[in-house]
């Protein structure tokens, strides 16, 4: 029979209340820390768009009105005015003048005489070597984006296989391309123009020419597709036009 080790340490019994408190803290901390992390991230995603919007607006406001502030500060009477209020009032007044000038130019473009003057100015600009390229490019982009002649540059949301078979990308139909298009004539089949924006910056992307039958035309709006692209797929479309779910179109794409 073995003798009991008298030198063994005796562990004192812990207070049950302390044990319960420690268990409570350990259990709650495991759920509390992730909750703090998710709340902080949610706050960041809320604040960043607001901050960027305000910062861009203030930057544009400052850049557009700096010339007026510099002109007033150089005037002889500038020392008699409060610099703070002078800066604010001059910037607001110059911004109102800028909007007024744009309004008058737009009003002038609606009358016959104004249109003739604008056409004369365009002819002069198109005769200058470097200015001609810059002006014609900017005018074509502006007509495509805003004018009633060009309409909306993005006509419809399109789903197509890219960069390989079985993978799909979202793009925007920009032109149906008639039979006079050189690519259509050389390939012998109609090719539509698709702009495929990059994520999360949709201002850059690729021009892709594809046969119409290889594309799936989605019911989601251009704005919904833009939100989907900018959010890297995190923000899904809330509504679909004509009540047709997007997954039905995706299934049709797989069958084709």
Structure explained in plain terms:
The structure is a single chain. The chain has 256 residues and is α+β, with helices and mostly antiparallel strands. It folds into three domains: 86 residues, no CATH class; 26 residues, no CATH class; 100 residues, no CATH class. Helices cover 55% and strands 12% of the residues. The protein is built from seven helices and five strands, in the order H-H-H-H-E-E-H-E-E-E-H-H. The chain has a five-stranded antiparallel beta sheet with strand order 4-3-2-1-5, covered by helices on one side. It is flat, with a radius of gyration of 32 Å. The N and C termini lie far apart (83 Å). The C terminus is likely disordered.
Average pLDDT, all residues: 78
Q: Cα distance, first to last residue?
A: 83 Å
The strand line-up of the biggest sheet is: 4-3-2-1-5
Q: Which structural class matches the secondary elements?
A: alpha+beta
Helix/strand order: HHHHEEHEEEHH
Radius of gyration: 32 Å
What fraction of residues sit in β-strands? 5-15%
Assembly state of the chains shown:
single chain
Low-confidence stretches: 249-254
Tell me the domain tally: 3
- Bulk shape: flat
The main sheet comes to:
5 strands, antiparallel
The total count of helices amounts to: 7
Total DSSP E strands: 5
Roughly how much helix do the residues carry, as a percent range?
A: 40-55%
